[in-house]
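From the shared-data thread, chain only:
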Amino acid sequence: NESNELVLINTAGGITCNDNIEINATINNSELSICTQAAEKIYAGIGDPATVEININLNNSSLYWLPKELILFDKSKLRRKININLSGNSNLIFCETSIFGRKAMSEQIKNILFSDQWKINVNSCLKHFEAFNMQGSMIDNYKNNYTFANKSALSTILIFGEIIHKAEYELRKIIENIDNHYCEMTKFDDKIIIRSLSNDNYDLKKTLNFIMKNIIHDKLPKSWDL
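Structure, as tokens:
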């Protein structure tokens, strides 16, 4: 049951309109982290939205889904679906980060099409579903205190399986001490959800790195080193 690391590489260097990417994986009796070599950049383009579909089946396994951040540029178009099915004695730690224009680079999102759907089943029963849909101008969403509050870096951590009982206490201690940006945690229906919203991607990276090092320890992918 040795822990392994799988790195996904996009040799095109990014994603733009009319691109189609599909990833299918079945993981049996394993402990595995899946990460990306670098941040995935979604570039402006002309034509139909790029599509990404990811389908993963876990059987008696632990998966740490830890891709680096998704960076969306002005006039980018992306439709993405992530479907993960857990069966048997499986655990999932799922971390996704989206950057809507890098503030350090003075990037602004004035027009975008972004649809992101995540569906997680446990033993063939729907356990979690969420969708993020944005089209057109993001300026009002940036300014609204109920959406982005002028922040541009958004991260979600989802945890499923028996691992939540081991991680919950440590996670609550960690999150209580995060005060440089928004970070909140909730636990219900046998899952943990952590949301973070930050003005700066680097600060968010440091927080995510600290959280992960405390719950999966030496299994953090090498590409996460700051």
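The mean pLDDT is 91.
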